[in-house]
Write a structure and sequence with these properties.
Layout: H1 4-29, E1 35-40, E2 42-43, E3 52-53, H2 55-68, E4 70-71, H3 74-83, E5 90-95, H4 106-112, E6 117-121, H5 123-128, H6 133-137, H7 147-155, E7 159-162, H8 176-194, E8 200-202, H9 213-221, E9 226-228, E10 243-244, E11 246-248, H10 253-260
Parallel strand pairs: 1-5, 1-11, 2-3, 4-5, 5-6, 6-7, 8-9, 9-10
Helix pairs in contact: 1-10, 8-9
The protein binds zinc ion.
Residues 96-97, 163, 167, 204 line the site of zinc ion.
């Protein structure tokens, strides 16, 4: 399976490439090029789990992205969605959770290359210095970033952002006090730690079931400028700029190429929770 899957994906990618190139050219002409937000978790060559990408693959992906897209900050990506015009496909890079291993090669590479990055961390694990509960449950405890690392990253220009306090699943969470603690509490703790405004929030697990209208509303009242999901989806100029859909970047380069050149199959992904949090009317979205 591990052999056939990339092979089939290669066939699909190159077979559908002319159609993609034509559609992307049309989108560009109309100022509707996609605004893509990628997410990684952990970049490391050891103790790999399903959300680990090797340094070799990560570096290969970054080289390819640099050669094919404008690499922008999450804030710039959001701006392009909000103003309703983008004439060149762009990519923003994000990370979730806050693994210490990312400070070995991946983040220093992005900093050295001046590639913008938003780094979502679950604040309590950083403050307490304990492994993430989901890794403990999988019997693979891995170190979170230290408070000092987060401070140094912020000083180096990495945009630190929130991913709840305890990596909580907010989908089924209905207790308003708990939601406030996870959303506003994480923002407050990270602002205290870094001395910088925390503007963005990403939902742990990030699938449709892990989001909720109440959490979106509380994220807005907690002062976030925007939130990110992780079920896989594109953003187009004119979409709801408060909710930025993200694309999983872990896996082979061919998987990333397939996503970022706009796979027609992925356009069927359903956007959830358009709150029109900003005073711009959402457009018809992705039709080319
Ligand atoms: Zn997470």
């Amino acid at each position: 399976m591990s052999f056939w899957k990339p092979l089939l994906l290669n066939c699909y990618y190159y077979g559908s490439y002319p159609q993609r190139a034509w559609r992307n050219a049309q989108l560009r002409t109309r100022g509707r090029s996609p605004v893509m937000v990628l997410f990684y978790h952990r970049i490391s060559d050891d103790r790999a789990n399903a959300w680990t990408t090797s340094n070799f693959t990560f570096e290969k992906q970054i080289r390819w992205l640099k050669g094919n897209f404008e690499l922008v900050s999450l804030s710039e990506a959001q701006h392009r969605v909000r103003v309703g015009h983008n004439d060149r496909p762009c990519v923003a890079i994000t990370f979730d959770d806050g693994y210490a291993d990312n400070c070995r090669r991946a983040l220093p590479l992005l900093i050295a290359e001046k590639i913008p990055c938003t780094y979502f961390v679950s604040s309590q694990f950083v403050i307490d210095g304990v492994p993430f509960s989901h890794d403990v449950a999988n019997k693979r405890p891995l170190a979170p970033n230290t408070p000092q690392q987060i401070q140094e990253l912020a000083l180096a220009g990495i945009d630190i952002a929130a991913h709840t306090r305890t990596h909580a699943d907010l989908g089924p969470t209905t207790d308003p006090d708990r939601l406030v603690e996870e959303l506003a509490g994480a923002r407050h703790e990270l602002q205290e730690l870094t001395g910088t405004p925390i503007r963005y929030f990403s939902f742990p697990y990030g699938q449709h079931v892990n989001l909720s209208p109440a959490a979106f509303q509380l994220a807005q009242s907690a002062g976030y400028d925007g939130v990110c999901s992780a079920y896989g989806g594109y953003n187009f100029p004119g979409d709801d700029p408060f909710h930025l859909q993200r694309i999983p970047a872990n896996g082979d380069l061919i998987r990333l190429k397939n996503w970022t050149t706009v796979d027609p199959r992925k356009l069927r992904s359903v956007r959830r929770y358009e709150y029109q949090c900003q005073p711009f009317a959402p457009s018809s979205g992705v039709s080319a």
